[in-house]
Structure formats: structure tokens, C-alpha cells
Automatic annotation (TrEMBL):
The lineage of its organism: Bacteria, Pseudomonadati, Pseudomonadota, Betaproteobacteria, Rhodocyclales. This is NAD(P)-dependent oxidoreductase. Belongs to the HIBADH-related family. InterPro entries: 3-OH-isobutyrate_DH-rel_CS, 6-PGluconate_DH-like_C_sf, 6PGD_dom2, 6PGDH_NADP-bd, HIBADH-like_NADP-bd, HIBADH-related, NAD(P)-bd_dom_sf. Pfam families: NAD_binding_11 (PF14833), NAD_binding_2 (PF03446). One of its GO terms (molecular function) is oxidoreductase activity.
């Protein structure tokens, strides 16, 4: 398929590369020219703006930081809607608020563009491997049409419902992963401060009801003190902000998510924002008076 990709950061770059590997003709644009170079070297088309991308492809994909960025590249000057032809589909794979996704979809529809929200889970590792979990919202026929593109980037792909439904699923995902990462960090810090081998504790827990992929994967990274970002703490903070804003809008109590949001706020405030979110362990160690880094 002829597809455009907008936003080539930690996640977007390997996702676009996987589209090329799957045989799709990919046209790219990013605010940072350096981010485009690996894609251009792999054969992607060189575009000057989001509108230029839409001019060359019937389907465009965005993977950017937050809702204002999505609005800018889709509805702003030199955005997708400015040059999209009849039947154009835009897939936003960023993580933004469900209400924002619905609003953007409605405004794109008014300009003849069908929008899907399709946020992902799996981090940089999943983006590189093409094994992302993709949660989609929007028109069922449009979803079916772009499914081959999603299959090039993900392994588990589910259409949840109408516009915004994919972002609701992603918010649920971030509640579970955020609280899970914090819980694993608390458990391992508790073990270490109790004077026992945290690695042996993790090994024991993996065999019982406490097992989770977070304990298995992120727990191992904590033990190895591998805080290289696959998903930066400031991004998890942003996602948890979305969760709490939606909870406020809906009048929901999310006490565990609220406490976890405060931990990510503290991470960013204490200079850990560029580390992976598993570095919440370092924050808890500092709070416990430990000097380990």
C-alpha cells in the first residue's frame, strides 16, 4: 500500500521501518530532519510536510507526543487535511485523551478524512520487533482496509469500537502497566531493604499468582539496573495525566492510578524523566534513604 508516516521518534521510526520491510511504499516526514535519515536510507519517500505526505499516500499514520501535536499535523497549516484526497484514511497511533481523539475524528470527517485512533502498547522493543498490541477505534470498514498496515507493526490487533474507543483501551492499559511497574518496584525495594536477595524473591514470585509480564520483564530490568528508556518516564507521566483527567471528567475514583501518577510526577520532578519508567525503583530507593543508583 501507499502509506505516509508522520513522527519518527523512539516508536515511530521502527514502526515505519517495519512497514517498508513488509513491502509497503512509505513516505515520511518529521519535524527533526535527522529522524528521517534512517527511513530515507531504507527507501522511504522524502516529504516536506504532513500535507506533502497526504498528497502522496491514501493512508497516513501519525505517531507524535500528545493531542496538540496530532491536531497540528492533521488539521493545522500544511497538515494532512489540507492535501488529503477523496477516501483518505488517517490513523493516529499516538496516546491522547479519548475525548481529543473523538474531536479530531469529527473535524477530520468534516474535511473528508476518515480517522482511526490506534494507540499501541509494547514499547520500543515491540516497535522494533513488529509485535505491538494495537487498540483501534473508528469506522469498521476503514479499519478493515488498513489492517494489512497494522499487521506489519503489531501482533495483537483489536478494533474496540467507535472513535475514541482505542484511546479508552490504551488508558486502561496504562493504568495496569503504571500501577504494575510501581508495585514491582515497591516489592523489590522491600525485599532489598529487608536484607534478602531481591532476585531470589522475584524468582519465587514468578511461580505463583504474583506472576505478571511486568514482574518477569521489567522486574529483571530493575534487578539489572537497566534504566535505558524503552518508554520514558515523562511519557508515562503524560499518559497517567490523561487517565486522571478522564477520571475527573467521568467522576471516577481511581486511587491506585492516582498514587502511581504522583510517583511519575516525582520522577520527572527529580530529574528521572528521561529514564525508563522502571526507574521508579530509583525514586523509591531515594525515598527509603538508600544510596544505590
Amino acid at each position: 500500500m501507499e502509506v505516509g508516516f508522520i513522527g519518527l521518534g523512539l516508536m515511530g521510526r521502527p514502526m515505519a521501518l517495519n512497514l517498508i520491510k513488509a513491502g509497503h511504499r512509505v513516505h515520511v516526514w518529521s519535524r527533526r530532519r535527522a529522524s528521517m535519515e534512517p527511513l530515507l536510507a531504507a527507501g522511504a519517500g522524502d516529504c516536506e510536510s504532513a500535507a506533502d505526505v497526504a498528497r502522496r499516500a491514501a493512508v497516513t499514520i501519525s505517531m507524535v507526543a500528545d493531542a496538540p501535536d496530532v491536531e497540528q499535523v492533521t488539521l493545522g497549516p500544511a497538515g494532512v487535511a489540507e492535501a488529503a484526497g477523496a477516501g483518505h484514511i488517517h490513523i493516529d497511533m499516538s496516546t491522547i485523551a479519548p475525548a481529543a481523539a473523538q474531536s479530531i475524528a469529527a473535524r477530520l470527517a468534516a474535511r473528508g478524512v476518515t480517522a482511526l485512533d490506534a494507540p499501541v502498547s509494547g514499547g520500543e522493543v515491540g516497535a522494533i520487533a513488529g509485535s505491538l498490541t494495537i487498540m483501534a477505534g473508528g469506522d469498521a470498514d476503514a479499519f478493515a482496509r488498513v489492517l494489512p498496515l497494522l499487521e506489519a507493526m503489531g501482533r495483537s490487533i483489536t478494533r474496540i469500537g467507535d472513535a475514541g474507543a482505542g484511546q479508552v483501551a490504551k488508558a486502561c492499559n496504562q493504568i495496569l502497566t503504571g500501577v504494575g511497574v510501581a508495585a514491582v518496584a515497591e516489592a523489590l525495594n522491600f525485599a532489598a531493604r529487608s536484607g534478602v536477595d531481591a532476585g531470589r524473591v522475584r524468582e519465587a514470585l514468578l511461580g505463583g499468582f504474583a506472576y505478571s509480564r511486568i514482574l518477569e520483564n521489567h522486574g529483571q530490568r530493575m534487578l539489572e539496573r537497566n534504566f535505558k528508556p524503552g518508554f520514558k518516564a515523562w511519557m508515562h507521566q503524560k499518559d497517567m495525566r490523561i487517565v486522571m483527567e478522564e477520571a475527573h471528567r467521568l467522576g471516577l475514583a481511581l486511587p491506585s492510578a492516582a498514587a502511581t501518577t504522583q510517583l511519575f510526577n516525582a520522577m520527572v520532578g527529580s530529574g528521572l524523566g528521561e529514564d525508563d519508567s522502571v526507574a521508579v525503583l530509583k525514586l523509591l530507593e531515594r525515598m527509603s534513604g538508600a544510596a544505590a543508583e
